[in-house]
Amino acid sequence: MFKVESYITPLLLNVVEKYVKNLKAEDTQVSLWGGDAVFSNLDLRTDVLEHELNLPLQFVNGHIHEMRIHVPWHKITSEPIVVTIDTMECVMRLPSKSDRTDVSDGSSEASLSKQRPSRQKKALEADEVPPGYIQTLVKKITNNISVVCNNLILKYVEDDIVLSINVRTVSSRSADHLWKPAFTDFAPPLLFLRKLVNFTDFTVCLDRRNASGKIESYQEPLLYRCSLELRCQQQFSGLHSPVADVTRVDVLCPQLEFSVTDVQVPMFLRLLELTRALLFGELTPDRAGRPADDPSGQGAGEEEATVPGASWVDWAWSAVPSPMSMLPLTWEDDDADDDARLAAHERVFHLSVHVRRADMVFKMSEPSRESAQRRARFTPYLRASATGAFVSSVLRGVQAVSAGWGVSYVSVRPCGGCTCGRHPAPDRPPEVSYFEMGQEGEAYMSGSLFADAQPEPVDTRRLYDIHWDTHMRERTEGWLLGRTAAAATDYLYVLDLPADYSGETVSELGDLEYSDLPERSMFRLVLGRSRLLVSSGSVHRFSHLLAAAGSATYPPYGRSQQPDRAGLATVTTFEGEGTRLQVRCQAIQWNEQQPMYPARLCRCVSQLARPPAALLYNCHVHTRCTTSRR
């Protein structure tokens, strides 16, 4: 006799035991049969988290104060299973050299933790395969599991930087095709799985600690109490397909309020550099760190040079969510649509982030007169605003990457008094703008999951056939500025694979520099109508900002030379109330052409006695800038 409890209970235990250390499976099973299970003071398996996320960061510790699992057995086919987590805290850092030498031990621990659910899987597979309606019912129940996390705390520590992320509530629920929370069915002909994730009161703090690890003066929050909404849509080719053919994740943030003090400016630039190093593959999980006792960053030798081909694309594919893979057992997928199914090297991952409005206020830090409080006094002097911004990236296996970002309107305005101290803050905010670009609009939201919903679901698998000629013909500079009038970028990469290439052949390619497969890439940056005003107030404010940026230096990620940030603070200032320079332009177009693999090209040319002129021309970087005015 087949019972739903015999499949749902092992599934929940499988997931919880995979990520939690101190768990008694016997007591948990009895509690789940009663409908509710409560766990307190749980320690997370940090090695499993590092393996699953595949980030170049090390989890120092992870702890859950309380976790509740509610299973509505009497309404299991119409109400979701709810997992509630109260207060989860994780601390992360870059791994040191000693941590990298112990990577084999950590891998063994992760493999042991993965063996626990595999034993449950083998035990379940030994039983008779349940009828089709039981399989469908189990899929339906697992796809509608809801997760609520109250008080999520994430901390990142590096050198003197302490980054804290606090989220009051994170909730994940199933949704219908109109993105309304619902208990959905997973049935043909179009198999969609939609998740609605909401972040409430998202706050980011950035402080500096001393040599003993304590924070002497707390700064204002870098980002204070914003809200985010995430919509994830996955399309599968069959009822029991473990991996989705198309995964799309769209994020919408109505408003971002940043506050950056002089102390936070160099630390904020350091975090941006960390993000850039992650995106361009300069940090990978097995070589992310540098010696903790080597502040100069020279401990990393040549063996830690950047691995060719390692980039954010690899990490993005490893982070693609797949709720189907959590099942402790797998059934045959006989109902898959073989004609529409995408091959493993053709699966699509689409990520988009949309921001309606973002404001960043730069503030001067002054010692507080109240000695009892460890807080400084902050005076704003510059405000940068942007409306209608988006970032989008489409990955189609290893064959194509299409990415870009854009901003509809950007402005930089003074606020408060001048940083020189000679001109106090006016009674009314000044109407002058140091910089303006573009105009506000709603076209940046076109094509997103937050635009007008389709009345009926449509097949999305064939909407991502990326072709070079079609892309260049449709996405012109006018089209880019029509979507975001201030600035727009467009990046395209296409790898031409022969028709006889299979998934196994693609996985064995490795470094594409010596594969002789045709590759093309292109990057465009288009700037719209803008206005720049240079005056004594703008020069004083930007000089102060550059001086704050060069007040602290950090060792670089994955590069042997330290950037000279001190030179950034060298700005010639001038006095005078009426001195100003105003520049206007209609559009700026910047074209740059360079070889994709310069090292291989230069070695090839150096071996030729008389290289062709076209080959010599392609050995150089060619840059062209075009401006137009009204």
Structural class based on helices, strands and sheet pairing: alpha+beta
> Distance between termini?
79 Å
Count of β-strands: 18
Give start-end ranges of low-pLDDT stretches: 106-129, 287-313, 319-340, 560-577
Number of helices: 14
Report the radius of gyration as a whole number of Å: 27 Å
Q: How helical, in percent, are the residues?
A: 10-25%
Mean pLDDT: 77
Strand-residue fraction? 25-35%
> What shape does the CA trace take?
globular
* Most strands sheet: 18 strands, mixed
Give a short summary of the structure:
The chain has 14 helices and 18 strands. By secondary structure, the protein is α+β, with helices and mostly antiparallel strands.
Describe this structure in words.
By secondary structure, the chain is of the alpha+beta class. It has a domain at 586-630. Helix content is 23%, strand content 33%. It has an 18-stranded mixed sheet that branches. Helix 1 crosses helix 2 (25-33). The protein is globular and about 75 Å long.
Sum up the structure in keywords.
single chain; 630 residues; alpha+beta; 18-stranded mixed β-sheet; 14 helices; 23% helix; globular
Structural topology:
Layout (H helix, E strand, L loop, with lengths): L4 H15 L5 H9 L2 E8 L2 H8 L4 E13 L11 E12 L3 H5 L1 H23 L6 H12 L2 E13 L2 E14 L16 E18 L14 E14 L9 E16 L2 H16 L32 H7 L29 E19 L10 E20 L3 E15 L20 E4 L29 H7 L2 H7 L3 E9 L7 H5 L11 E9 L2 E6 H14 L30 E6 L1 E7 L4 H9 L6 H6 L3 E7 L2
Parallel strand pairs: 3-4, 8-9
Antiparallel strand pairs: 1-2, 2-3, 4-5, 5-6, 6-7, 7-8, 9-10, 10-11, 11-12, 11-13, 12-15, 13-14, 14-17, 15-16, 17-18
